[in-house]
């Protein structure tokens, strides 16, 4: 009987871990990611769209996470760029993650970026033309985007 309980407990843990992300979302570490490419949006609209999914524009904290996102973007074969949740709209040159207001400790800027071209580029994206390194872009540009949510959110809210 004890073995049966242990086996059931183990199966429950495995099922929870493997089914933690909703359909269409991709799991990495403690988060789920959705690559939204059906309708490109401006940065603010993309941020709002993610919030309707109980998520945020992705906040990249490590090279491992960055590489996961780049590899997945390449695998989609869409040759598109993707908004991330980084902006310097409040203080030029001081990039912060919008949701947490934390400084970007990790970054992967493309060469000569961020450059605030025309003094109009305040939002960051993984840019196809730079092999998905980061680029600052005009926030109203309509591009694809990546939403992120913690796995714990998915367990308590499996629908969204």
Keywords:
160 residues; alpha+beta; Mannose-Binding Protein A, Chain A; 8 strands; 29% helix; disordered C terminus
Topology of helices and strands:
Blueprint: H1 2-18, E1 26-28, E2 31-41, H2 43-52, E3 56-57, H3 63-75, E4 82-87, E5 96-97, E6 121-127, E7 133-138, E8 143-150, H4 151-156
Parallel strand pairs: 4-8
Antiparallel strand pairs: 1-2, 2-8, 3-8, 4-5, 4-6, 6-7
What is this entry, summarized?
The protein has 160 residues and is α+β, with helices and mostly antiparallel strands. It is built from 4 helices and 8 strands, in the order αββαβαβββββα.
Q: CATH topology, what is it called?
A: Mannose-Binding Protein A, Chain A
Largest sheet: 8 strands, mixed
CATH class: Alpha Beta
Distance between the termini: 37 Å
Cα-atom radius of gyration: 18 Å
User: Which runs of at least 5 residues are low in confidence (pLDDT < 50)?
Assistant: 1-18, 153-160
SSE pattern, N- to C-terminal: HEEHEHEEEEEH
Using the alpha-carbon principal axes, give the shape: globular
- Class by alpha and beta content: alpha+beta
**How many DSSP E strands?**
8
User: How many helical stretches?
Assistant: 4
In percent, how helical is the residue content? 25-40%
CATH evolutionary superfamily: Mannose-Binding Protein A, subunit A
- The percentage of residues in β strands lies in 25-35%
The domain tally reads 1
Mean pLDDT: 86
Subunit organisation of the chains: single chain
